[in-house]
């Protein structure tokens, strides 16, 4: 597609070439650039990548290409791209170094968290671009394995101030959504004029004008089609126009043309191309060894004139186009394919690459083969050890297909389904469970199937089906006298029922609680057993009866001596129980430790839940900017994998407490529209509570009352139904429904008095004051302020001042009212709680006071990420440590800090410490 004398270098691609050159120029100036080229096969994406490489003079370049046969091998594409950079591996922080080394199979270790692998890759690539601009090219990215695609998308989204260019080429139409969040450029067909020029450059004989018009029309400007379609026509057909039209898709026509050319080659040459097509690494030495086993001389085979523009054997094996590779593989029949895979397996060193050898052996098998299946099983174990869950699942799935013994096949199908579930491949996991269920499984195997079915249901939507499936599995384990598995599964059933709440499809909180109480007692009780017993009591005997057991379980969960793995699995229960007990201090402790443990362990898949709980603590404390930084981090982590934040509580809570009605109502509608069909009752409850808070802040008491009634409808649920009663009482009193308020107060006081914390008794006193008069009301308001003043829940304290001030104004005590309303207005304004601040301002003005506007005491010149980085720098964290916590490179941290210094007029990190920020959101 090159055009002589063209400054752009490629015919009809001036704009695309300029975009690529601009990326390189940006990298030379210290700016990162990312682009995804999308287009149909043959449209010229690979040529554009070659053009980019040719223009990247003075830059270091690395490249990789996705290979369809390696899509199941986790981190294969990433390893291919990063291999030239691995000399810098030892310079990474130890957790990152170990994670990436384990993922690449360079060292043994526990399966690394994919976020830690992503952070390590970001550091490796960013550091490589420190001395010399780095250009990274990935062709055929639609065939990257999932782990590599997600990791590279994670990296691409975080490149900012590094001298790095990252360009992908993706064939369309593509399946999946990898790289979908990145900037992209659609590569379309050439114009008719340029198509004619390109066609004329390859046609030497006479051409009938009708044939020329048909080729130009059918090619739709596809350069490879313009170059290859004429090859499929005889000279007579070109000159006379007597060929038959081909109605197949253009890519099929091009591939069929390549297929005809391969089939016309001598047998030895065709077999060599099939061998090369089956070997995805492009390893010339391996290809020659395998060819020798088939009695093929590689050099003689490729010397045939028909292969010159199909394949080259240089330092690596390279096909002209992926369609040539697929055509070469298709040209071989089933027996010949098995033959080439057997040759490749025999030529592969079992010590250096046992897994690829096993993969080739599987392709060489003509039927069930226990020896190969066992080898695939061992490969799955190795893949899982280095974090390749998707690869492990693929190995196990193939092992299942090659297993003849029905019992062994069923067992392997269960193992494969479990790996598929862990890899997020829910439909294949469910299909494997069908295979497993058809086999002669014992009771343990049947229980595992039920657990996995529940896991699929829970992972897909955290909805109402999971409790019933988990409960059935727990009972099976109990019948097998496996107490540990039975009790652990009962606790999983309770967790699923907590999320399902009122929308459970089958057993709900009461039923799973009753079943848990019937579970066999623990022989050596652990913290998880205390949690199980406490929650079972909570859901069967009611809140007051369970408080002592829940307090003991919470104390155990907050014990620093608890093993890290147990903290990772169970600390989220600590946040749930603490919120249910109105224990703000232990909620803060549990949520803070959960975030810290997850970060230190590198278990970043659990980070969004931990961050959301920690953000909630900051929201009710009135620390909205601190909560926002955590919410942004949670959203960033979820976006890196294409997932959504569970429940969406963070952004919704922030919008509600800020009183931003339009934004909040949009989020409320979106969350409910998603949660109700999924059976996520807990999400519905907390969303309705948020709606009640929003409406009370805005003075929309009738709407607040309706939302609070829904929030408080199912009191067996955790925490938020009691909070709903608090909102219900205020809304009912303000909308003239004292009977509803009195009934709600009776239900509330049963829980708050059992809890006995200052938070619980403070909101009860405030709520009771709303239904009281005279001295009794005043005593209760003062009690509420005193008790809430000893807690972290400053939002509730400010609301106590507001309600007390409103009561004083209605008692015509304007001076006293101004004091309380002034405190409320100052607090809400400082928090950034705009609706409640405006409500306070209106009440203050009604007393005759002049109200001055307040602003939040955070440096307003900084963006939220700059403020977050400044906070961490002020705490003494280094740039790599800040980058590791915020999932950005140290170069980006340096860039942000330069802006911080410039905006604040300071010159050192020491000066940051003197700046008063809102409560530190990321401290341990």
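Sequence proposed for the structure above (924 residues):
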């Amino acid at each position: 597609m090159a055009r002589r004398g063209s400054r752009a270098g490629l015919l009809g691609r001036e704009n695309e070439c300029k975009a690529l050159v601009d990326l390189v120029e940006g990298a030379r100036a210290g700016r990162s650039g990312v682009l995804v080229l999308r287009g149909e096969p043959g449209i010229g994406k690979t040529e554009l990548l070659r053009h980019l490489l040719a223009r990247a003079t003075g830059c270091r370049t690395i490249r990789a290409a996705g290979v369809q046969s390696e899509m199941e091998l986790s981190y294969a594409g990433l390893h291919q791209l990063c291999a030239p950079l691995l000399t810098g591996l030892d310079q990474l922080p130890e957790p990152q170094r170990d994670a990436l080394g384990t993922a690449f199979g360079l060292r043994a270790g526990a399966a690394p968290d994919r976020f830690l692998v992503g952070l390590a890759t970001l550091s490796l690539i960013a550091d490589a671009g420190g001395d010399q601009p780095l250009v990274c090219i990935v062709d055929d990215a639609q065939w990257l394995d999932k782990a590599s695609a997600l990791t590279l998308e994670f990296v691409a989204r975080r490149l900012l101030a590094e001298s790095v260019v990252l360009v992908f080429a993706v064939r369309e139409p593509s399946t999946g959504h990898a790289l979908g969040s990145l900037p992209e450029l659609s590569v379309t067909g050439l114009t008719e004029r340029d198509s004619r020029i390109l066609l004329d450059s390859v046609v030497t004989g006479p051409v009938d004008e009708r044939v020329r018009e048909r080729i130009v029309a059918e090619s739709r400007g596809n350069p490879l089609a313009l170059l290859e379609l004429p090859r499929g026509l005889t000279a007579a057909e070109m000159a006379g126009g007597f060929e038959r039209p081909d109605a197949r898709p253009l890519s099929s026509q091009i591939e069929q043309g390549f297929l005809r050319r391969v089939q016309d080659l001598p047998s030895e040459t065709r077999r060599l191309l099939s061998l090369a097509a089956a070997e995805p690494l492009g390893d010339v030495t391996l290809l020659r060894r395998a060819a020798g086993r088939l009695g093929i001389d590689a050099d003689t085979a490729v010397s045939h004139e028909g292969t010159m523009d199909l394949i080259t054997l240089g330092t690596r094996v390279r096909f002209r186009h992926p369609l040539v590779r697929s055509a070469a593989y298709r040209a071989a029949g089933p027996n010949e394919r098995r033959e080439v895979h057997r040759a490749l397996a025999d030529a592969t060193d079992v010590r250096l690459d046992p897994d690829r050898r096993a993969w080739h052996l599987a392709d060489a098998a003509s039927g069930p083969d226990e020896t190969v299946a066992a080898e695939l099983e061992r490969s799955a174990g190795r893949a899982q050890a280095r974090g390749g869950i998707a690869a492990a699942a693929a190995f196990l799935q193939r092992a299942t297909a090659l297993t003849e013994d029905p019992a062994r096949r069923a067992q392997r199908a269960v193992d494969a389904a479990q790996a598929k579930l862990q890899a997020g491949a829910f439909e294949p996991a469910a299909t494997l469970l069908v295979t497993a269920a058809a086999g002669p499984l014992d009771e343990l195997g049947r229980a595992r199937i039920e657990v996995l079915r529940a896991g699929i249901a829970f992972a897909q939507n955290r909805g109402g089906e999971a409790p019933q499936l988990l409960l059935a599995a727990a009972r099976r384990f109990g019948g097998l006298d496996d107490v540990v598995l039975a009790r652990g599964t009962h606790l999983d059933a309770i967790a699923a029922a907590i999320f399902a709440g009122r929308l459970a499809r089958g057993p709900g909180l009461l039923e799973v609680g009753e079943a848990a109480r019937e579970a066999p007692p623990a022989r050596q009780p652990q913290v998880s057993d205390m949690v199980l017993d406490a929650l079972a009591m909570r859901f069967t005997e009611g809140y007051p009866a369970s408080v002592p057991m829940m307090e003991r379980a919470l104390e155990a969960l907050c014990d620093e001596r608890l093993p890290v793995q147990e903290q990772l699995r169970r600390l989220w229960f600590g946040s749930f129980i603490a919120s249910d007990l109105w224990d703000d201090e232990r909620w803060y402790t549990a949520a803070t430790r959960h975030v810290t443990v997850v970060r230190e362990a590198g278990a970043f898949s659990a980070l969004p839940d931990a961050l959301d709980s920690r953000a909630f603590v900051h929201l009710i404390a009135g620390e909205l900017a601190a909560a926002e930084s955590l919410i942004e981090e949670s959203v960033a982590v979820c976006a890196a994998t294409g997932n959504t934040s569970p429940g969406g509580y963070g952004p919704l809570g922030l919008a509600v407490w800020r009183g931003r009605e339009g934004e909040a109502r949009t989020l409320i509608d979106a969350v409910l529209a998603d949660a109700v069909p999924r059976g996520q009752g807990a999400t519905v409850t907390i969303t309705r509570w948020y709606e009640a808070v929003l409406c009370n802040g805005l003075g929309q008491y009738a709407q607040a009352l309706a939302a609070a009634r829904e929030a408080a409808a199912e009191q067996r649920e955790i925490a938020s139904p009691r909070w709903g009663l608090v909102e219900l009482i205020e809304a009912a009193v303000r909308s003239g429904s004292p009977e509803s308020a009195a009934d709600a107060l009776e239900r509330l006081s049963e829980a708050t008095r059992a809890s006995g914390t200052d938070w619980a008794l403070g909101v009860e006193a405030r709520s009771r004051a709303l239904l009281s008069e005279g001295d009794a009301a005043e005593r209760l308001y003062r009690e509420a302020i005193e008790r809430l003043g000893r807690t972290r829940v400053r939002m509730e304290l400010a609301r106590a001042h507001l309600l007390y001030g409103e009561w004083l104004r209605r008692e015509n005590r304007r001076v006293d009212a101004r004091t309380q309303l002034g405190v409320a207005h100052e607090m809400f304004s400082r928090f950034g709680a705009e609706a409640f601040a405006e409500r306070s301002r209106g009440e203050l003005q009604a007393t005759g006071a002049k109200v001055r506007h307040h602003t939040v005491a955070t440096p307003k010149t900084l963006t939220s990420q700059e403020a977050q980085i400044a906070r961490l720098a002020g705490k003494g964290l280094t740039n790599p440590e800040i980058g590791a916590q915020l999932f950005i490179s140290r170069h980006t941290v340096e860039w942000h800090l330069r802006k911080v210094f410039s905006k604040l007029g300071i010159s050192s990190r020491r000066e940051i410490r003197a700046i008063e920020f809102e409560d530190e959101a990321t401290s341990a």
